[in-house]
Amino acid sequence: MYWFILLAVFLIAGYYFILKRKSKAIEKCFSLLSLVFFLLLTSLFWSDKVIDISLLLPFVLGALGVILGWFGIKGDLRISLILLNLLALIMYSVLFFVAKVGFQEP
Questions:
Q1: What is the pLDDT of residue 67?
Q2: DSSP run (H or E) holding 52
């Protein structure tokens, strides 16, 4: 059920905010991939399966989302995608720091 909701959000946001814009096809692809990486990064907070694979995977996804957002469609959408990915990356960084440093026993 959770993946169905993420897919619906992705399809609606991707169609109305990215695919209907008049820009180059490669910029649309970069923007869509940035949105995909943002959704994957935010879905990692509720999934233990991905964190079992690697604790650094969300950092990679966040960095890729920022880079692809930078090369995406110009304007307000670019700023929004970069800020969303940065906020999710900062939130995961804080959680990672608390988990690594805060929960250690003396």
A1: 94
A2: helix 48-53
